[in-house]
From TrEMBL:
This is Protein kinase domain-containing protein. GO terms for cellular component: plasma membrane; plasmodesma. Gene3D superfamilies: Phosphorylase Kinase, domain 1 (3.30.200.20), Transferase(Phosphotransferase) domain 1 (1.10.510.10). InterPro entries: ANXUR1/2-like, Kinase-like_dom_sf, Prot_kinase_dom, Protein_kinase_ATP_BS. It comes from the Eukaryota. The keyword ATP-binding applies. It comes from Castanea mollissima (Chinese chestnut). Residues 41-319 form the Protein kinase domain. Keywords: ATP-binding, Nucleotide-binding. GO terms for molecular function: ATP binding; transmembrane receptor protein tyrosine kinase activity. ATP binds at residue 73.
Amino acid sequence: MEGVSKLFRTFGKRAKPSSTLPEELCRRFSLAEMKIATNNFDDKLLIGQGGSAKVYKGLLIDDCSCTINVAIKCVTFDWPRTEAPLACQLHHPNHVPLIGYCLDDQQMILVYEFMVNGNLGDHLYGNTNHHGPLPWKQRLQICIEVARALHYLHTGLKHTIIHRNVKPSNILLDEKWEAKLGDLGLSKLGPSSLSKALIKIESEVVGTYGYADPGYVATGELTDKSDVYSFGVVLLEVLCGRKAFQRSGVEEHQYLVDWAQKCKREGTINKTIDPCLMGKIAPECFKIYLDIATSCVRNEGNDRPTIGEVEVGLEHALQLQQSADAERKDGVDQYNYTIVE
Ligand SMILES: Nc1ncnc2c1ncn2[C@@H]1O[C@H](COP(=O)(O)OP(=O)(O)OP(=O)(O)O)[C@@H](O)[C@H]1O
């Protein structure tokens, strides 16, 4: 389970649970059903615990009397109740489908489809015993799918949604290893997505250390480019196999973004590649991917690409990798490259 370090969060007043939840859009469960599904919230079924919720693996019986695995997310009482109303309106293959919810005096619970292959962070940092390291093309495909999920949030709905918590533990993988973006708990509804006006929302600063857009942290001004920044950090993690933020000494903190930018400046960026990917990335693919990742984490939001541009760039990077692999001579299974900066 990933240690969560939120920046800081502003809690609303301890409100009575609202009844404006979408019963017509997804199923409402009783607390008794949730208790049965989780064996009375048995700790043995706990998958993980974030800053706002405990997530259990649960079992439900569907309409055809078949059992289905679900992820049951028990949200802290004080937490803003925006996740269910937003999640039930999403219809996109790269978002974790919400099955239903349970609203009780004591508890707000969300029921999601269970993602059998866990989260991206577990696979990048070897927290799972079941699989070896993710191959490069699979990592690229996952990134493309996450970019599509974000593109949908930013432009595919009536109103722009800014996710605000893009990070590997919120990128889940289904049985076909398809990526699904989860956890809309911190998401913020923006202006109409058709509006040409600049998306800028004054907002209390929330997010996770190492992923939050520095401009947003400094000013509280949230834009779609804040998600682009966080996604850029994820792209660097995928390439380097290193966490966004780590303590290197008692007082010393190291941010992946600073380190990657320094290595890029010094021309040593090829040394940052995850050791298990060495020689596997075609140079032309590497160049494009690195350009995308570093442009996403530029300091100024205006200098960052839109998520749509990122999506197209990543698709291009994957095509270049596939062509290079197809042209590679038999028997040669490593790319040799010196990176020219
Ligand atoms: N639908 C799901 N299927 C499988 N695992 C899930 C599902 N939803 C969440 N999880 C896992 O449950 C754990 C806790 O998730 P949660 O979103 O509450 O916290 P987090 O992402 O670790 O931190 P944060 O509170 O900052 O988002 C994570 O490991 C996450 O990958």
